[in-house]
Amino acid sequence: MIEPSVVDKVLGEVSLTLKVEEVELFDSLGRTLAEDIHADRDFPPFDRVAMDGIGIHSSQLGKTKLFKVEGIQAAGSPQLSLMNNENCIEVMTGAILPQNIEVVIPYEWTEKAEEGIKVLDFKNAQVMSNVHQKGTDKKKNDLLVKKGKELSSAEIGILATVGKTKVKVIQLPKIAVIATGDELVGVNEVPKEYQIRMSNCYSLKASLSENGFSSEIFHLTDDKESLIVKINQLKKDFDVLVFSGGVSKGKFDFLPEVFESLGIKKEFHGVKQRPGKPFWFGKSEQQVVFALPGNPVSTFLCSNRYMIPWLNNQLGKEKYLPTTAILDKEFKFDKPLTFFLQVETYYKEDGLLYAQPVKGGGSGDLAKLTAANAFLELHPEVDIHEKGQQYTVWFYKK
Ligand SMILES: Nc1nc2c(c(=O)[nH]1)N[C@H]1C(S)=C(S)[C@@H](COP(=O)(O)OP(=O)(O)OC[C@H]3O[C@@H](n4cnc5c(N)ncnc54)[C@H](O)[C@@H]3O)O[C@H]1N2
Ligand code: MOO
Ligand SMILES: [Mg+2]
User: Fold this and answer.
1) How far is the CA of 67 from the centre of ligand 3 (A)?
2) Which fold has domain 4-18+172-314?
C-alpha cells in the first residue's frame, strides 16, 4: 500500500498521448488550444471613433463656434472626407474616422443649431481625442492567445474577431465508465430486495462532464470470462477505462487478475487512506485504467482527489491547487491512514475558510455526499485532529 502523496507522484509520471483536432469555433469552449492565435490585422483595424459627436480639423481646436455639417459618418460605412476645414462631420461610435478629421467632440459638449452644431466647450480635447487609434491595442501578427490555453468566453471573442471558424484543440481522451457487479440494475429498473440501482457510474460521468470530458457508461457482471472478453474490447475502443467496484478481497472481485491477464500493468493496488483503500491503478501501452473501489463515497473520493486532476493535467489545464480550510470541531481518527473527512465549508467574518465535519455513515453512505461539499485531507500522524488546525481541502461542489 502507498501513501496519497505517492499516488500523486505515480500519476504525475503517467501521461496520455493526445492528438490535435479541429472543431467549430463555439465547440472549442472549455477545450485546450493547440495553435497560437495571432492578430490578422491591427487592433483596432482603423482609427475608430470612440464617442458619438462631431469630428473636426485640428486647426479648429478651442474655437467655440458654429460648425456646418458636411455629412454623417456612420459605423459600417466607407470613409468620408472633410472638404472644408471650417466644417464638421457628425461621427458615430464604431465608425472609421473621416479623412482630414483629427478630433472628436462628444455631442454632450455641443448644442444643435439651425445651420449646424455649436461647440460649447472643448474641455481638454486635443488631436485624436475620443479616437481609438489604429493598432494601439495590438499590431497585425501579434500573439493574442497562446497554444495550451484553456478556452473561456474571453478567448472565444478573440477567436471570433480574427475569423477562426475552425479551431485546433487537443483531442479529448475517450473515456469508458464501467460499473461492475451482479447486484446492480439500471436506473429505470425496480431492484429486487438484494439488488441496488447503479449510481457510481452516473456520478462519475457527471464529474467528468463538469470538467468538460464526455464518457460512455457500461455495466459488466462479476463473471471472469465475460470480464476478460468485454474489457479486452473496451481496451481497443477507449483511452481511459474507469471502473467502480470489483477491486477488493471478495470472491468475485476479479478485476486485478483480469487486468493482469489482459496485459494491463499494475502501478499500485491499495492506498493508505479511508475511504478508497482498495484503489487500483495501472496502464497498458495505450490505455490508462483507474479501478476505483465500489463503495460510493470511495469511488467519489478517488475520482475527485486523483482521477479528475490527472485528466485535467493531461490537457494542460491550469493545475488545481488545493486550498486549505480550518477544522471547526475536533475530530478523532486513530488508524494509520490518511482520512478524507467529509465537510461543509463556509467563510466566517474573519475572511477565513472553515470546515464543519458532516455526520453520517461510512463509505457506503451515498446520501451524505449532498450534505457536504468537500473532503478534508487529515494526515495519519496524529489521532486527534484539533479544532483550529488547517488542512488541505478538496472541493467537489462550490
Ligand atoms: N475483506 C475485506 N473486505 C473489504 C475490504 C478489505 O480491505 N478487506 N475493503 C472494503 C472497502 S474499504 C471497500 S471501499 C470495498 C471495495 O469493494 P470493491 O471495489 O470490491 O467493490 P464491490 O465489492 O464491487 O462493491 C462494494 C460496494 O459498493 C457497491 N457498488 C459497487 N458498484 C456500485 C455502483 N456502480 N453504484 C452503486 N454502488 C455500487 C456494491 O454494491 C457494494 O455494496 O470493499 C470492502 N471490503
Ligand atoms: O474505501 Mo472503503 O471506502 O473504506 O469502504
Ligand atoms: Mg468487493
Assistant:
1) 87
2) Molybdenum Cofactor Biosythetic Enzyme; Chain A (3.40.980)
